[in-house]
Fold this sequence. Notes:
This protein has helices at 5-18, 31-43, 112-121, 127-141, 156-159, 182-193, and strands at 58-60, 75-86, 92-103, 106-108, 124-125, 144-155, 170-177. It is an alpha+beta fold. The protein folds into 2 domains: 5-43, no CATH class; 54-193, GTP Cyclohydrolase I, domain 2. The strands form 2 sheets. A 5-stranded mixed beta sheet has the order 5-2-3-6-7, sandwiched between helices. The protein has a two-stranded antiparallel ribbon with strand order 1-4. Strand 2 (75-86) and strand 3 (92-103) form a beta hairpin. Helix 1 (5-18) crosses helix 2 and helix 3 (112-121) crosses helix 4 (127-141).
Amino acid sequence: MAVDRERVSALVRDLLVAIGEDPDRPGLRMSPQRVADLYADEFFAGLGEDAAAPLRRTISVVHGPAPDTTPSGAVLLRDIRFRSVCEHHLLPFAGRAHIAYLPGEQVVGLGALPKVVDILAARPQVQERLGEQIADTIAGALDCRGVLVVMDAVHQCVTMRGGRQPDAATVTIAARGALADPAARAELIALIGREGA
């Protein structure tokens, strides 16, 4: 389902009127269309997209181009930058995702993991569900023994409204398979927090 740009533009115009603004003044004249384009092309572009699609192209670790490099432990990709829009107040939140998985016979190109994050983040979200969706997508699409997703983000609904806590960050953990055991993921959690590993 694509974002209805015309309808969003009309609704943003109505919103401007509702807050007491003049949507025809020079500074706001293009705002309804700008917001509609932002929603369609960026903030909510992941709606209707298949988040597992980037994971369909895998590499065999046994029969692939480098069979002598079969991972004996986890594959960890740290510091994947992401941004999303909180579904509660429609304010942005942004941060870093860290993804680890224990590969089976197949691995995926490392560039595929940020694509999964991007697709799922480009929807109205909450951080807790976003991490769970990323973990479920990877666990369901890859031949892996375990998945760990750690997300660390700053939410504008916390930093800009209410108590206004500019330094507050939210950390969430989603784990599947062998990495659902806290002891099994302890080493990965330590590597995620390590500077310049």
